[in-house]
């Protein structure tokens, strides 16, 4: 402390005057701008406009979506409606140019009378991702095979190439948008820091502060904390700034103190804010083509002709379509009722791709309702083998059964047991999927009540059940399976207690090892956390985040069973 108020203030202004220039320099560096460029406000966007090679003759989905956005912005009147219709027609033409005329696969199994119009469980509603299969080396040959070689389930030939090219363009655009929003957050922060007066009053009495005030204080404090050494005011410690930030986050975004602490343990203040902001935003609506009944291109054509604007999901998925806009309820189209697709978030594709089901296998989905993953597993197995679809909740089983009927799945046996007890009934399975019950901290945009309803005892309870379920999943699996011996664990939680800690426990108590999930994107799992060390192989697990992958928070880990039995010696 020390010095008069005026002197202290002059000192702060001197300090933050320098801070402003430094912040601007950092932001410019992040945006890769020269000093000269930085003077032009539109440069970051100008710089990102990529030149497109081999411009297609037909309008691409990306161009279409840009036009559509522009049209919507301009006006909402008749003229705009007409232009939207015209764009839809153009897009239809585009798809027609790629593919053979629409033909519906003959379907003797569709159960259109007993359908249940139900969205998939929030745990499995997710979005689009970044990552490029073409550029990635897969270590899991099985997954690679499924993703690339299973021609009969996939659209073929030049159509796929065109779709993938468009998909790549969309991905590029999305990545650039993400960079822009990060830059925007930083530049807002820089704008704020210019106001040295504001800095001087950061710690003033809070009671009268509006949400907007607190939001700008959050941005300012994040900026200070990201370079605390040169930006601190000399009066307050880092932990005082942190505590100010956490209080504001609780106030503005509605989180309880427990979750805020958990997130700050995982992320830097800047990344924490990005995660929190992204968690409030809805993710894109995605549907999965039911390849037991139709092909993606046929489904796309059928939906487009109904005024549903769809594009292929990222190029790692052969089945996914992103729905941009729809003139009809997407859960009530004739195609939905006929079981041609499942409304299913993109992240819920991932555990199934990691599981890599093979035809004629015996597979257990231990916590299956409402069946987004079960029905995908059956589709990849082409209705061969057996899928045991289990869930302990009898009410939720109803939607599982309805989805199984609607999608024409014929290889499942549905059961309603506590998964922890299944081992006395089901053994020697080739693969087991455990999409575990969890806190839902990755799907806050679907269920904001998570912000206040989770506390430490709650997470500890989850963690205990998850560990018990995972040991049971391993025990149900056959280490000597000729084709599998695989267990996949997933949650829609971002918390380490429900993810890495569960896998680490299993590694200590069963003869299993972590193997690559074969998913070409996602962040490696933690191997250290809050002073705890996890098995180094946990880096093969994959984490997905809304602020990085534009999808709900998710965790996936693939295990290979080595032999039966209980591992008693934790150091083994
Ligand atoms: C994340 S959801 C599963 C979503 C599902 N895999 C899908 O993709 O549609 C978790 C499920 O676990 C079930 N569950 C909770 N405790 C269980 C237990 N002890 N044994 C089996 N299932 C359980 C819940 O009823 C819930 O349906």
UniProtKB/TrEMBL annotation:
Composition-biased stretches (Basic residues): 46-55
Domain of life of the source: Eukaryota
Binding site for S-adenosyl-L-methionine: 391, 418, 435
Pfam families linked: Methyltr_RsmB-F (PF01189)
Acidic residues composition-biased segments: 151-163
Annotated GO CC locations: nucleolus
Keyword Lipoprotein: no
Main location: nucleus
GO molecular function: RNA binding; rRNA (cytosine-C5-)-methyltransferase activity
Region (Disordered) residue spans: 38-176
Protein family according to the UniProt entry: Belongs to the class I-like SAM-binding methyltransferase superfamily. RsmB/NOP family.
Name of the featured protein: RNA cytosine methyltransferase
Lineage of producing organism: Eukaryota, Rhodophyta, Bangiophyceae, Galdieriales, Galdieriaceae
